[in-house]
Structures are given as structure tokens and as C-alpha cells.
Automatic annotation (TrEMBL):
Record's keyword annotation contains Acetylation: no
Protein location: Cell inner membrane; Cell membrane
Function according to Swiss-Prot or TrEMBL: Part of the ABC transporter complex UgpBAEC involved in sn-glycerol-3-phosphate (G3P) import. Probably responsible for the translocation of the substrate across the membrane.
PANTHER family the record matches: ABC TRANSPORTER PERMEASE PROTEIN MG189-RELATED-RELATED, SN-GLYCEROL-3-PHOSPHATE TRANSPORT SYSTEM PERMEASE PROTEIN UGPE
Residue intervals passing through the bilayer: 16-40, 75-99, 111-132, 144-165, 186-208, 246-267
Source organism per UniProt: Labrys okinawensis
Protein name: sn-glycerol-3-phosphate transport system permease protein UgpE
Major localisation: membrane
Cited SUPFAM superfamilies: MetI-like
Gene name of the encoded protein: ugpE
Entry membrane topology: Multi-pass membrane protein
Gene3D superfamilies: MetI-like
Length: 281
């Protein structure tokens, strides 16, 4: 009732914007709902047509087939370790680098910051051969370090944290210095807690990117025990998966995307707060 009253009390422009947002939200949810419903349909029925997607029969066989796969939980653990390690490492390095660029003075700071930003213009595919050769020489393939370390060079993370640190008044640092606080103590206990919204946003995007990454894990992890979930799921598909196993394919998509959705639910308020704060600044 309160929501209806709020909608009536809005201006005509606000109503149009809200209606447009609702239309876009529904348009975004329709493909997601379609994938979820298809994941519960028997593959034998989907081979002929998807017209009966809203009608029985439904089955859990596609999900039981995923769980029955011998390596699926190993792949899930690998993805959690890789995505979690990459997220933590990115947050630590980006926060330290961002604080250094925003709060300290050192020779060549501006030039170095420009070089970091140039990393945003270099696609991963451009360095994939050199990266593969480097980790081959170090004999690090088929291990967690090889899957995690390349993702720690996060130019966007450094840029985001630098801009966020710059938006925090320097008076806070100066007040802490008057109390004889060290530079690291100011960073760790005074300034860093103020950047939690930005860190949550960066963490979500980093985790999502690492979780969905397919190219580098496909190249670096050649042993099934080291497959991430994306590579492992792809390895179970047949050449005719899209025609003979469409329900199983959709169940894989739901299974792989569920952990990311859960993580987003826990941190969505920080993302909204960070976006709102950026808009105000």
C-alpha cells in the first residue's frame, strides 16, 4: 500500500523513469527465467521443440547428472579458491597502490599512474602467449598460483581505489599524524575502513570475472583435477550438447551462476552505496 502511495506521489517524470526501469528489469529477467525453466525440462522433449517449456513434464535429472559427475565438486572448489584468492589479492594490492597514488608524493608518480592506466587498453588475448610461455618456463601450470597470479594485475582496481582515496578529505590523515600515527596505521585503521563500498564493488566485479573466466584456465589447467567450474562443465558437453542436451546445458549455466548470485545478494548494498557515492561526487 505504501509503495502504491509513493508511486502516486511522484512527479510525471519520476513515474516515466520508474516505469522504464521496471520494463528493463522485466526484459532482463525473462531470459534468466527461460534458462531456469529449460533446466528442468527433459532433454528428450527439448530435442523436438521448446514450445512446451511452460507445460509439464519437469525433471531434476539435469541437476542430478551434474552432481553425479565425478569431478564437479572438485571443479567447484577450484573455482572458489581461484576466484577467492584473486579477489583478496586484488583488493590488497589495489588498495595499497591506490593509497600510494592518492596520498603520497614520490618521483615519477604521475607517469607511473599513466602506465598503469594503459593496462586498461591492453586486451588479455594480446599477452596470452607471452604469459603462457612465462609460466611454462617457471613450471607453474596446473597449479593455483598460475591461475591466480595473472589476475592480480588489475589496472581498473588501482584506478578505482585511487579515485576513491582522493575523494576522502586529507584532513583525516593530518589529524591522525598529529596523534603520531604512522603512515601504515593511518591507511589501515583510519582511511581504509572508509573505502568499504568501493572495495565491495571491486571485489564483486573481480570475483565475477574470475569465476566466469574460461580462456586462461583452459590454457593453464590441462589436468582435470585443476579444472575450474567453467572449464570442467565445458569438458562434459558433447558435440551436440545444444541440440541433444539443451536442458543439461541450461542446468550447467544455473549451477555455475548460482554462487555468484549468492555473493551478490550479500554485498549488493555496498555496490548501491558505492554507485550512489560516485554519482554524488
Amino acid at each position: 500500500m505504501a509503495s502504491a502511495q509513493q508511486f502516486v506521489g511522484r512527479t510525471a517524470g519520476d513515474r516515466v523513469i520508474l516505469a522504464g526501469v521496471l520494463v528493463l528489469a522485466v526484459a532482463w529477467l525473462i531470459p534468466v527465467a527461460w534458462v531456469i525453466v529449460l533446466s528442468f525440462k527433459p532433454n528428450s522433449e527439448l530435442m523436438f521443440s521448446t514450445a512446451t517449456v511452460l507445460h509439464p513434464p519437469y525433471t531434476f535429472k539435469n541437476y542430478t547428472d551434474i552432481i553425479a559427475s565425478s569431478g564437479v565438486f572438485r571443479w567447484l572448489v577450484n573455482s572458489m579458491i581461484v576466484a577467492g584468492g584473486m579477489t583478496i589479492g586484488t583488493l590488497v594490492l589495489s588498495s595499497l597502490a591506490g593509497y600510494g597514488f592518492a596520498r603520497t608524493e614520490f618521483p615519477g608518480r604521475d607517469i607511473l599512474f599513466v602506465l598503469v592506466l594503459l593496462g586498461l587498453a591492453i586486451p588479455e588475448q594480446a599477452v596470452i602467449i607471452a604469459r603462457h610461455q612465462m609460466f611454462t618456463d617457471w613450471k607453474m601450470h596446473n597449479g593455483y598460483p598460475a591461475l591466480i597470479l595473472p589476475g592480480l594485475s588489475h589496472a581498473f582496481g588501482v584506478f578505482l581505489m585511487t579515485q576513491y582515496f582522493k575523494a576522502i578529505p586529507r584532513d583525516i590523515d593530518e589529524a591522525a599524524m598529529l596523534d603520531n600515527a604512522s603512515r601504515f596505521k593511518i591507511f589501515w585503521k583510519v582511511v581504509l575502513p572508509l573505502t568499504i563500498p568501493a572495495q565491495a564493488t571491486l571485489g564483486i566485479f573481480t570475483f565475477l570475472s574470475a569465476w566466469n573466466d574460461y580462456l586462461w584456465p583452459l590454457i593453464s589447467a590441462t589436468k582435470p583435477d585443476m579444472f575450474t567450474l567453467t572449464v570442467g562443465m565445458a569438458s562434459t558437453q558433447t558435440n551436440f550438447a545444444q541440440s541433444e542436451g539443451l536442458g543439461f546445458l541450461m542446468a550447467q549455466a544455473v549451477f555455475a551462476g548460482l554462487p555468484v548470485f549468492i555473493v551478490y545478494l550479500f554485498f549488493q548494498k555496498y555496490i548501491v552505496r558505492a554507485v550512489a557515492g560516485a554519482a554524488i561526487r
